[in-house]
Design goal:
single chain, alpha/beta, Rossmann fold, eight-stranded mixed β-sheet, about 35% helix, transferase, rRNA_lsu_MeTfrase_F, METTL16/RlmF, EC 2.1.1.181, S-adenosyl-L-methionine
């Protein structure tokens, strides 16, 4: 299936609106969140940094970034839950904002009238936090983990900058993605998702060991997850490709209720299978949005069942 790339594959830096494009300013981050200070060290290159193999340091850095850039003073996650790197998550949000702008003559829609569904929102709620602060969007977050969902709701309740921007929905059937979450009488302008990357617990552990080796922290025994993650956050049967193909199949059932469906795709080798799955449900548009952070390349695949001629009508109906 033809896929239009709206960002070039050779893109090597974060999105132009991403506030994390520059090196971390640790004095400024410590000023915004003083508990970060004990974790700041000088690395072998003479630069200030933190030990990214240390889960406590990663969480402290995230708290500082959220406080400094987003005004979020009360952010926490239960032990063992995913503590994601924020710059890459922000790139996803800003990239799909550009996607929505295509439907509004190049202007990004902002405010409560824009409704976004985050599939697998997680305890950290990073995507809704960034989207709410940056664009004022309304979010619904789905989860199969009740504890994770409760934590996401608590984060929005405790932070004034996020007030009124989030509702959680528990997915009671783990084999479903949109079914049981999207109600018959509602619409979403956008769906987002960071699907489980691995196909098994062993595969997830192997990925963690590779990351630790790259950080020079390889150790025998069970690896410590520097970014954390529960089983459903890290792996599912069949891995990323199985999850995304199920999402594509279900998206056809809600073709008229969602303007854009999107998902992060970590493995480039999965793209041909994803395009083949999309061809079977016959969307009217498919885009691939390439993203990069340093040498790490990822991409978002987006599809819509609405012809371009009807996007302006959607914008007039839902965004005025």
């Amino acid at each position: 299936m033809p896929s239009k790339k709206i960002f070039p594959a050779e893109k090597s830096s974060l999105h132009a609106r991403n506030p994390h494009r520059a090196r971390y300013d640790f004095p400024a981050l410590v000023a915004s969140h003083p508990p970060l200070a004990p974790f700041v060290v000088v690395n072998p290159y003479g630069d200030e940094s933190v030990d990214f193999a240390n889960p406590a340091a990663v969480k402290a850095l995230n708290r500082a970034l959220l406080a400094h850039f987003y005004g979020i003073r009360d952010w926490d996650i239960p032990d063992g839950y995913l503590c994601p790197p924020i710059p890459g998550r922000a790139d996803y949000v800003h990239s799909v904002a550009d996607l929505l702008a295509i439907s509004k003559g190049g202007t990004i829609p902002r405010g409560d009238k824009v409704r976004v569904l985050d599939v697998g929102v997680g305890a950290n709620a990073i995507y809704p936090i960034i989207g709410r602060v940056a664009y004022g969007w309304q979010f619904v977050g789905s989860e199969i983990d009740a504890a994770a969902l409760k934590n996401a709701e608590t984060l929005f309740a405790r932070n004034p900058a996020l007030a009124g921007g989030f509702k959680g929905r528990l997915q009671s059937r783990t084999e479903n993605i949109f079914e049981g979450v999207i109600r018959p009488d509602e619409h979403f302008d956008l769906t987002i998702c960071n699907p489980p990357f691995h196909s098994s617990a062993a595969d997830a552990a192997g990925g963690t060991r590779r990351k630790l080796r790259n950080l020079g922290k390889a150790a025998p025994g069970k690896p410590v997850l520097n970014f954390g993650g529960q089983s459903n956050e890290l792996w599912c049967e069949g891995g990323e490709i199985a999850f995304v193909r199920q999402m594509i199949r279900e998206s056809r059932l809600f073709a008229q209720q969602c303007l854009w469906f999107t998902t992060l795709v970590s493995k480039q080798d999965n793209l041909p299978l994803i395009y083949a799955a999309l061809e079977r449900v016959a969307p009217r548009a498919v885009f691939t949005l390439d993203m990069a952070q340093g040498q790490k390349i990822s991409r978002v695949v987006a599809w819509s069942f609405y012809p371009q001629s009807e996007h302006e009508d959607w914008a007039k109906q839902h965004w005025r």
